[in-house]
Amino acid sequence: xxTAIQGLVGxxxxxxxxxWVLHGLDRKIxxxxxxxxxxxxxxxxxxxxxxxxxxxxxRWRVLLAPVRPNVPxxxxxxxxxxxxxxxxxxxxxxxxxxxxALLSAKEDIPLGPCVGTVVADRLLDGVAIVxxxxxxxxxxxxxxxxxxxxxxxxxxxxxxxAVIVVCLAGLIAVxxxxxxxxxxxxxxxxxxxxxxQATLGLSRGVEALRSxxxxxxxxxxxxxxxxxxxxxxxxxxxxxxxxxxFSDSLVMLLPLALGVAIPTxxxxxxxxxxxxxxxxxxFGVDPALAAGAGILMHVAIVLPVLALGPILLSTEKVSxxxxxxxxxxxxxxxxxxxxxEATR
Length: 344
Prior knowledge:
This protein is an all-alpha fold.
């Protein structure tokens, strides 16, 4: 019932956002803009965007090194792609849960630290997005009317960065003082003890950030991944006929990431609304071209994952039932002592 409600709410939200994207547009102009798109450039953008997952896997491997060094590339890449595919197809955004659970089962890695590395992974994404936004905003071709709006977004981005850094620092602190926290939690009431033990398990996922030797490649892979995404997005936007600079695409990473975070099926609506709003409000792009860019680039992001996912399901011998069970296993963390023991 909960999943059904989440699905219905997501569909309603997607419909409202798509209505906003398409409202007031001349559909004929939109169709013509899509028809004139450079499909070869769009395909290149899609391929480059898919390629960012290589850097994501390399970063994940470094994050996992304190728990399990030298995890093979193939199962990690398969877990990442299958996690994305689940996010696009299943309500509730359980793909983020499927990814660590699949790798945990495949490589016999403790579940808690594996989930913790994914939490760290997302926080590091935030660091890279805000950093690249700040760099891009220095030379981006903002319209005169959007200058004050860009300044407000920049301020919000720095506040978000501060929150992200505090979250990372908190997890690192818990990881550093794990035995003391564990002993303190052992004397607390059951609900607090369960939550604390789950937090300790997650904190093991950021142990790599305590090592200066590992922090450098982790940050390098983070920025490389999002620079790759920015390049693919820039090519996709230009393929749709909107002339923006590469620094503008760095700025677009922030609204697009927020758009994808909206819990709609397959990112439908949220991504399109973020693309249209960013291109029109910040860079003065024609609304029809902006809407066309959102539609085409969304296809370029989702289609390769949906094509590659079933192949990986077959080659890795994973079923849909396995992925749903994996997501449920992660959701149960902290719900019972047995679940907590599984995170260790």
